[in-house]
Design brief:
By secondary structure, the chain is α/β, with parallel strands linked by helices. Among the domains are: 30-162, Rossmann fold (3-Layer(aba) Sandwich), CATH 3.40.50; 413-510, ANL, C-terminal domain (GMP Synthetase, Chain A, domain 3), CATH 3.30.300.30. Helix content is 30%, strand content 25%. It contains 15 helices and 25 strands. The protein has helices spanning 3-13, 32-48, 65-76, 90-100, 112-116, 139-142, 187-201, 218-231, 243-252, 262-269, 294-304, 377-382, 423-432, 467-477, 503-510, and strands spanning 18-22, 28-31, 56-60, 80-83, 104-108, 127-131, 167-173, 181-186, 208-211, 234-237, 257-260, 284-287, 309-314, 318-322, 336-337, 341-346, 360-366, 372-373, 390-398, 404-409, 414-416, 419-421, 436-446, 450-459, 486-489. Strands 2-1-10-9-11-12-13-14-15 form a nine-stranded mixed β-sheet, sandwiched between helices. Strands 4-3-5-6 form a four-stranded parallel β-sheet, covered by helices on one side. A four-stranded antiparallel β-sheet has the order 16-17-19-20, with no helix packed on it. α2 packs across α3 (65-76). The N and C termini lie far apart (53 Å). 46% of the residues are buried. The chain binds methylmalonyl-coenzyme A. Methylmalonyl-coenzyme A binds at residues 213-214, 217-220, 240-241, 261, 263-264, 288-289, 313-315, 416-419, 449, 480-481.
C-alpha cells in the first residue's frame, strides 16, 4: 500500500478528527475531511493550469497549510514535489529550479522581486504563483467549492496509483564536489520507511505530535508530518522553534510525541524553569539529524525524566536505525536497524565486510534507499557499491548485539543545528571574493549548534577585507545556516603530505576549546 492509499483511508476513517493545527498566528486548523477537500481543490486548481503527471512543483513557502496542501496535491496527482528552504538566496533557487526543470513554482509574495531577476532564464518554469500565507484572503481562502467545482468529493474520486519506483519528492543535498544533487525519494521509499517507523515507534491514531521542525527536509516532512498522517494522528505545529513556547505547547496540549534535533533538546533542558514542565505524558521523544551529545542525553533524563530515543537517517535513505521504544536506549548509539533495513560495516580500503566492533564505513540496503540523484547517473552509481550497498560516508561500528554507533565521517561535512553544511560549497563562495586568495572551512565544536561553521581565510597581498565584510558577502550568496559564524585570517594554510590543506591541523589550531 502506498502512502497515498493510507492517507485516503485516513481521510475516510477520521473525517471529523483534527489533522493539523498551526498554533502560531495565523492560527489554522483542519480536520481530516477538511484537509482532503483543500487538497482536492488544489488538485483541481493545478489541473486547470495544465498540470501533467511527472511535473515538478517547487514550493518555497513558510511552514503553512498552503505548503502542506500544495505538496500533498502534487504527489496525489502523480507529480514531483520540490520543497525548498525559504531562506535560500536567489542563486541557489535558480539552480534548483533549473536543474529540476520545475514547471510550477509557489513562492512567497515578499520574494516576488527577487525571483523576477532570474525567472526569464528558466524555460521550463511556466507558472509562478506568489502567495502570502499570512494574508486572510490567501490562496486557500480563494479555493472555494464554487471556484473549484470539479473537486467535489465523489465516492470514486481517484488519485495517482504509483509504482514503487515513481519519484514523489526531490530534496536537494549539497555534496563535497560540484553542485547540489536532487535526491529522488520514491513512493516505495516512503511507504517502506513509514511502515517501519510506524511499528518501531508504536504510532497510534490517538497520538498528538508537537511539530517544531522545518518541513522542507526529510525529518520534519516525512518522519514527523507524514508519520502523523500515516497514523491518522494529529500534528500541532509551531512555525519557528522557541523553547518556552515548545514546553508550554507540549504540556497544554498533552502531546504524546515530540521529534527534534540535539540543538533543540539542549535548548529545552537549558531553560531556567525547565523542571517546572511535566512531560510525563509524552510516550515518544526522538532525536536525530545530528549526533546526540552524551550530556544532552543524560541532561534530558535528569530534567524531564525521559530517555531520548536517538535514531539515524539521511536524505537519501530516510530512517535507517533507531533505539527501541521498549528496550535499552543506549547512550552514544543510534540503535538497531529498522525492519527491512540492512546495515553493514565495510573496510574503507578493501570494501570488505567487517566484524562487530571494527570501525568502517556504514553501508545500507533496503526499500528505504533512494533510487538516485535527479539527472546524475554517474553520481548516483558512485553512491552505491557494485553489490548495491549505499555508501553513507559515515564511519561507525556494530556491537555484538546489533547496535550501531557512529564515530565520524569520511566526507567533509559539518552538521550545524541539524543542518548539513558542505565546506567546499562555502569555500567556493569565499574564494569568489576579490580579496580572498584561498579559504578553508571547518566545523568547530559548539555547545549550541553542535558544530560551528568556521572559515580560515588567506587574503591576497595588500587586501584588508574584514570578517564582517566576508560574512556579509557569504550571506548574500548562501543560506544563513551555511554562512560562517567565525572567520579567522592567516598568512598561509597548513598542507599535509598529499599537498592538500590539512583541515585536521586547522581544527587543532583554530577551534579554540569552548569554556
Ligand atoms: C538558524 N541559524 C543557524 C541554524 N539555524 N545557523 C547555523 N545552523 C543552523 N542550523 C541561524 C539563523 O540564520 C540566524 O542567523 C540565527 O541562527 C538565529 O536564527 P533562528 O531562526 O532564530 O534560528 P533558530 O530558530 O534558533 O534555529 C535553530 C534550529 C533550526 C531550531 C535548531 O536550525 C532547526 O530547526 N534545525 C533543524 C533542522 C532540521 O530539521 N534538519 C533536518 C535535516 P542570523 O542571526 O545571522 O540571521 S537532516 C534530515 O532530515 C535527516 C534525514 C535526518 O536524519 O533527520
Amino acid at each position: 500500500m502506498s502512502f497515498l492509499d493510507t492517507l485516503a483511508e485516513n481521510f475516510r476513517a477520521y473525517p471529523d478528527k483534527l489533522a493539523l493545527e498551526l498554533l502560531d498566528s495565523p492560527r489554522q486548523r483542519v480536520t481530516y475531511s477538511e484537509l482532503e477537500s483543500l487538497v482536492r481543490r488544489s488538485e483541481y486548481y493545478l489541473r486547470t493550469l495544465g498540470f501533467q503527471q511527472g511535473d515538478r512543483v517547487a514550493l518555497q513557502l513558510t511552514k503553512s497549510l498552503e505548503f502542506i496542501v500544495l505538496h500533498l496535491a502534487t504527489v496525489r496527482l502523480g507529480g514531483i514535489s520540490l520543497p525548498l528552504n525559504p531562506a535560500y538566496p536567489p542563486d541557489e533557487i535558480e539552480y534548483f529550479l533549473s536543474d529540476s526543470g520545475a514547471r510550477f513554482l509557489f513562492a512567497l509574495e515578499l520574494n516576488r522581486i527577487k525571483f523576477q531577476s532570474f525567472i526569464h532564464r528558466l524555460p521550463s518554469l511556466e507558472h509562478c504563483i506568489f502567495l502570502d500565507p499570512d494574508d486572510p484572503k490567501n490562496f486557500l481562502a480563494m479555493l472555494t467549492p464554487e471556484s473549484t467545482p470539479g473537486s467535489a468529493i465523489t465516492k470514486n474520486a481517484g488519485y495517482f496509483q504509483p509504482n514503487q519506483d515513481d519519484t514523489a519528492v526531490i530534496i536537494y543535498t549539497s555534496g563535497t564536489t560540484g553542485q547540489p544533487k536532487g535526491a529522488q525519494i520514491t513512493h516505495g521509499n516512503l511507504a517502506s520507511n513509514l511502515q517501519a517507523l510506524h511499528s518501531a515507534w508504536g504510532w497510534q491514531p490517538e497520538d498528538v505530535l508537537l511539530h517544531v521542525l522545518p518541513i522542507f527536509h526529510v525529518h520534519g516532512l516525512f518522519v514527523a508530518l507524514y508519520g502523523v498522517l500515516y497514523a491518522g494522528a494529529t500534528a500541532l505545529m509551531l512555525r519557528d522553534f522557541d523553547p518556552k513556547k515548545t514546553l508550554q505547547a507540549l504540556v497544554e496540549n498533552r502531546c504524546s510525541v515530540f521529534m527534534a534535533v540535539p540543538t533543540i533538546h539542549r535548548r529545552l533542558i537549558n531553560m531556567p524553569d525547565a523542571n517546572n514542565f511535566d512531560l510525563s505524558h509524552l510516550r515518544l521523544i526522538t532525536s536525530g539529524s545530528d549526533r546526540l551529545p552524551d550530556e544532552v542525553f543524560t541532561g534530558f533524563q535528569k530534567t524531564f525524566g525521559y530517555t531520548l530515543i536517538e535514531r539515524y537517517g539521511m536524505t537519501e535513505t530516510g530512517m535507517n536505525t533507531t533505539n527501541p521504544l521498549h528496550g535499552e536506549r543506549r547512550l552514544g548509539s543510534v540503535g538497531k536497524p529498522l525492519p527491512g533495513v540492512e546495515v553493514r560495516i565495510a573496510d574503507t580500503t578493501t570494501g570488505g565486510q567487517l566484524i562487530a566492533g571494527s570501525v568502517g564505513e556504514v553501508q545500507l540496503r533496503g526499500a528505504n534507499i533512494f533510487k538516485g540523484y535527479w539527472n546524475q547517473p554517474q553520481k548516483s552509481s558512485q553512491a552505491f557499491t557494485p553489490e548495491g550497498w549505499f555508501r553513507t560516508g559515515d564511519l561507525g561500528f556494530l556491537s555484538e548485539d546489533g547496535y550501531l554507533t557512529l564515530v565520524g565521517r569520511e566526507k567533509d561535512l559539518i552538521i550545524s543545528g541539524g543542518m548539513n553544511v558542505y565546506p567546499p560549497e562555502v569555500e567556493r563562495v569565499l574564494n569568489e571574493h576579490p580579496d580572498v586568495a584561498v579559504s578553508a572551512v571547518i566545523g568547530c565544536e559548539d555547545k549550541d549548534w553542535g558544530e560551528r561553521v568556521t572559515a580560515i581565510v588567506v587574503l591576497k597581498p595588500g587586501q584588508h577585507s574584514t570578517s564582517e565584510e566576508l560574512i556579509r558577502f557569504c550571506r548574500s550568496r548562501l543560506a544563513p545556516y551555511k554562512t560562517p559564524k567565525v572567520i579567522r585570517f592567516r598568512d598561509s594554510l597548513p598542507m599535509n603530505a598529499m599537498g592538500k590543506i590539512s583541515k585536521q591541523e586547522l581544527r587543532n589550531q583554530d577551534c579554540a576549546p569552548e569554556k
